[in-house]
From TrEMBL:
Pfam families: SQAPI. Residues 1-23 form the signal peptide. The keyword Signal applies. This is Cystatin domain-containing protein. SUPFAM superfamilies: Cystatin/monellin. Keywords: Protease inhibitor, Signal, Thiol protease inhibitor. Gene3D superfamilies: 3.10.450.10. CDD domains: CY. Transmembrane segments: none annotated. Residues 24-120 form the Cystatin domain. GO terms for molecular function: cysteine-type endopeptidase inhibitor activity.
Length: 122
């Protein structure tokens, strides 16, 4: 039974990468259209701001923390896991700022990692 489930999971991943490569863009990014109502994407946006704040405590000028507002745009890419490219609205000292965040999620061990967080480049 365990083996059967494992096989299904493997088939699922193979199938995923097929449909991505069939689009002619191997590992291409897919736009997520329901960003504002997509709880997982919003949670990942909050996670990215929280992680960044944790990693940069004391470097933000000390006068105010970065506060998550919302994710306004998101794309995802199938890699070894899912890579989410988020455009995040956050406020710092009351001023609204946009950031580019990249989070990799590995569903099989429920891990996620912030791999990039930088001011949004227009
Ligand atoms: C970001 O959020 C702030 C506060 O809600 C809002 O005033 C601002 O218009 C938002 N910016 C964008 C680009 O969505």
């Amino acid at each position: 039974m365990v083996r059967f489930v494992a096989l299904l999971i493997v088939l699922g991943f193979v199938c995923c990468s097929c449909s991505v490569s069939n689009g002619g863009k191997l590992g291409g990014r897919t736009e997520i259209t329901d960003v504002k109502t997509n709880k997982e994407v919003q949670d990942l946006g909050k996670y990215s701001v929280d992680q960044y704040s944790l990693q940069h405590q004391g470097e933000l000028g000390g006068t105010g923390n970065l506060n998550f507002v919302e994710v306004v745009e998101a794309q995802m890419q199938v890699v070894s896991g899912m890579k989410y490219y988020l455009k995040v609205n956050a406020t710092q000292n009351g001023a609204s700022k946009m950031f580019d965040a990249v989070v990799v999620v590995k569903p099989w061990d429920q891990s996620k990692e912030l791999v990039q967080f930088s001011p949004y480049a227009n």
